[in-house]
Structure formats: C-alpha cells, structure tokens
Amino acid sequence: MGKAKRPRALADTEARAVNKMIRVSPQKLNLVAAMIRGKPVAKALAELEFSRKRISVDVKKTLESAIANAENNHDLDVDALVVKEAYVGKALVMKRFRPRGRGRVGGIQKPFSHLTIVVREVEEAA
Predict the structure, then answer these.
(1) Is residue 83 within 8 Å of 37, Cβ to Cβ?
(2) What are the beta bridge partners of residue 105?
(3) Residue 110's domain spans which residues?
(4) Count of domains observed in the chain
(5) How far apart, in whole angstroms, are the C-alpha atoms of residue 94 and residue 113?
(6) Which Gene3D superfamilies does this UniProt record tie to the protein (predicted)?
(7) For residue 73, is it within any domain?
(8) SS3 content of the chain, % helix, strand, coil (to 5)
(9) Is residue 13 packed enough to be buried (19+ CB in 10 Å), middle (13-18) or exposed (0-12)?
C-alpha cells in the first residue's frame, strides 16, 4: 500500500538545486545570489566565473546542478533556462571564543548558510 506520492512543489517547466551548510554568512552569499537573479543561465554562469567573490565558486556549482537537474530529470531545454529564484537561508552559527586582555573573552560567530536556486524554461519571444 504505502502513502500516496507527494505532488511536485515546482511547475513542470522548473527545476531546482539546494546547497546546504555553506560556510559563509547569509549576507555575503545573498550579494552573489542577487547578481544572478532573473538572468539567463549562460549570462549568470559567465558572471559567476569572473566574479572576485570567494563564494561565487559554490554558487556556480549549485547553478550548474540546477541546470543538470533541468536537463536530465525534467527534459528542459538548457538554452532557454532563466534563473527564476536564488534565495539564501540561515543555517546554524558556530560560536567560538578568543582570549582578550585582562582575563576577558571575545566571542566569534561563524555562520553557515543554505542556498536554493530555481531555474525556469521560458519560450523564445519570436
């Protein structure tokens, strides 16, 4: 018997990829995610390739995964894909401590983030 299959959360013309527990603050990751929102995937990949931000390597890898999911799992045309959504979520924060002068302690927070990229196939306007 078993449970009924859960309906797909995305439309038939969409695919997504999720990268969890990235060791960077959500604020820094969101700066890079904002660069690619709403752009065609070819242009987004080019911008990530030449970006000077360290985290753009992980964002590029996640975008390539979303493109591969669209092509292999959902039979979408790679040339017609656009980045529909690129959003960042907050994950855990590791707390560490550094000794300071006069017996005090300074707290250091090491945040983690989640990244979700959704690509959508759009028809060419003729």
Answers:
(1) yes
(2) 99
(3) 14-121
(4) 1
(5) 12
(6) Ribosomal protein L22/L17 (3.90.470.10)
(7) yes
(8) 35, 35, 30
(9) middle
Count of beta carbons in the 10 Å neighbourhood of residue 17: 19
Domain assignment of residue 34, yes or no: yes
Looking at the whole model, is its pTM more than 0.90? yes
Please check whether residue 54 lies inside any domain of the structure: yes
Query: Which CATH number does the domain housing residue 92 bear?
Result: 3.90.470.10
CA atoms of 17 and 64, how far apart (whole Å): 9
32: how many CB neighbours lie within 10 A of its CB? 23
The Cβ of residue 50 has, within 10 Å, a number of other Cβ atoms equal to 7
Beta bridge partners of 106: 98
Tokens of 108: 């250091």
**The total number of residues written for the chain in this structure:** 126
Query: Per-residue confidence at 125, pLDDT binned at 50, 70, 90?
Result: low
